[in-house]
Q: What sequence folds into this?
């Protein structure tokens, strides 16, 4: 099985910003004003190659924790079984977030490309969710805690950066990749009496 370490965003890189302006449809006589949702990331999300493993570093933007609002929350660090399967599923969730299934004549494609999914971290695992830009399609990926080997886990919700280079890297994951040495030792210890 292929395992990928999932870690927090690396600090100290340039700040990335995705602006997304929503203009609600008007029905009836009252018009609603447009508003802007601002995603600000400290670094781009990336799949980082190591000597014996690959690490998925998801950048976060805004969120909620039991302690309150957080600019760049850190919820999880650990290993994921069958990373190739979850990578494909995460790509689908991210694709829904940047897709408009109904395209009004005045929409902008750039706003759609900037859309990012949401991740929720709980004791039960990780949940990645997104709505399409038109809010007509919902996608969800649940990663059960039994598929995770966490070295850090906290409760909360945040947006995650799923940028084009990350999508390409996730699409390249295949089953049967190398296991991190520490994880191999732990697995071997569990299989021997």
A:
């Amino acid at each position: 099985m292929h395992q990928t370490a999932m870690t927090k965003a690396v600090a100290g890189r340039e700040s990335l910003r995705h602006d997304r302006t929503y203009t609600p449809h008007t029905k009836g006589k009252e018009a609603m004003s447009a508003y802007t949702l601002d995603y600000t990331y400290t670094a781009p999300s990336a799949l980082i190659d190591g000597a014996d493993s690959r690490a998925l570093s998801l950048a976060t933007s805004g969120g909620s924790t039991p302690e309150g609002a957080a600019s760049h929350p850190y919820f999880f660090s650990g290993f994921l079984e069958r990373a190739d399967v979850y990578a494909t599923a995460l790509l689908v969730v991210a694709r829904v977030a940047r897709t408009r299934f109904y395209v009004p004549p005045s929409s902008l494609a750039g706003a759609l490309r900037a859309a990012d999914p949401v991740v929720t971290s709980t004791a039960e695992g990780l949940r990645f969710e997104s709505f399409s830009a038109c809010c007509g399609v919902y996608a969800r990926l649940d990663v059960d805690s039994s598929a995770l080997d966490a070295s850090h886990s906290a409760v909360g919700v945040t947006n995650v950066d799923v940028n084009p280079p990350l999508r390409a890297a996730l699409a390249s994951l295949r089953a049967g990749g190398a296991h991190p040495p520490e994880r191999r030792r732990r697995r071997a210890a569990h299989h021997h009496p």
Notes: The two ends are 22 Å apart (CA to CA). The CA atoms of residues 40 and 75 lie 17 Å apart.
